[in-house]
Write a structure and sequence with these properties.
The structure is a single chain. The strands form two sheets. Strands 1, 3, 4, 6, 11, 13 and 14 form a seven-stranded antiparallel β-sheet that branches. Helices cover about 15% and strands about 45% of the residues. With about 230 residues, it is mainly beta. It has one domain: Galactose-binding domain-like (Jelly Rolls, Sandwich). The protein is built from four helices and 14 strands. A hairpin with a 2-residue loop joins β3 and β4.
Amino acid sequence: MDSYRQRLLLLLLLMISGANVTAEDIIDKLSIGSFSLGSLEDWEAREFNGQTHYELVDLAGVKVLKAESVSSASGMFREQRIDLHKTPFMHWRWHISNRLSPHLNEQEQSGDDYAARVYVVVSGGAAFWKTKAINYVWSTTSPVGKVWPSAYAFAAATGKMTMISLRSSTNETGIWYSEKRNVREDLKQQFGEDIRYIDAVAIMSDSDDSKGMVTAYYGDIYFTKD
């Protein structure tokens, strides 16, 4: 019996016994993007400058989300409140088929394009200027581990959007890479706050600033407690 079924059985036993317990207390994996199940439920497209094409495709027998960007910038968003005290670790896998121009300056708006990115958003509500975000990016010219503020004027002025390079030109195209990030710790390090909740997860492949083209693939996205 796998661990998920074991936890589910334990939950049922506790509920039958009258214990005050919820599913969230037992099931510690929170699925956000179940692409392998052929589902885009609760995901919606948002366009910034042109339309990146997203579709579920079969790749080596597994369904994944394909992104094709041609001088475009649009993303796929899922709004969901996630408690980082319970599930702080975000997992996903991705790969790219080609690279953008090696001459991009990703710290300037003219070069703010990424073959792939996954990001988390902390909503500022009505005070939109308080919105915070971390972009985990597949960089073209920045080394792995580099951190910098978004090149876009508003985000740069408020310091509320951070870019973190997880992959770069040193990583191969056509190869799947798996990622695991402690989002709670990343937010604390970047913004100096122990933020408990994030409000959305998004993905985007964009090439509008560089007028290039790129194809990327995204696997399932989920959160765990450890």
